[in-house]
Model the fold of this input.
Amino acid sequence: SYVLTQPPSVSVAPGQTVRITCGGNNIGSESVHWYQQKPGQAPVLVVYDDSDRPSGIPERFSGSNSGNTATLTISRVEAGDEADYYCQVWDSNSDHVIFGGGTKLTVL
Amino acid sequence: QVQLQESGPGLAKPSETLSLTCTVSGGSISSSYWSWIRQPPGKGLEWIGYINYSGNTNYNPSLKSRVTISVDTSKNQFSLKLSSVTAADTALYYCARSYSSAWSYWGKGTAVTVSS
Done:
């Protein structure tokens, strides 16, 4: 089955840029989506179809996807961005939904 | 604005069948795909399965033998049944609606504990 690999944690200082990766075999051929989940809350879609943002999501959130790695980039990081982030694909071979293990973002 | 609300017992006994319902408001259930996703305490997200507007389903292979997802268009609801539950099924259960191949609308989640 398809596996998505994320680093367990990343940290960044406020105002800096952070990149969260999501690795998968030829993930560049899939559409990748990213979710933000704050403690006690449901996940929120922040990037879909590799690089599109839902309405209401700041432009500071962007995404890219190529080869075996998809990346969520958060620019000008704020304290309120501290959360868990999950990548997700809909595996075209199996039609199954796959989530990465999640990355905990700490804002220093 | 589409809203989803999970409901069901918060406690289940081992070996029993867990039943949850997701009520959709602000939109018709007769379109899009609808999914159940769970999150064990302190862990990541796990997709359980989905049903589409035609009633077609697809399940996580690791749960497939125990899962049934169905839809009731007359009530604008879809449901999850998970049989033979164990403590490993203790989790926060979310329902969600698709947009493209992402899950754009989520319920707040309902906590289920499996314990005797």
Summary: Chain B touches chain A through 21 residues (CB under 8 Å). The CA atoms of residues 25 and 73 of chain B lie 12 Å apart.
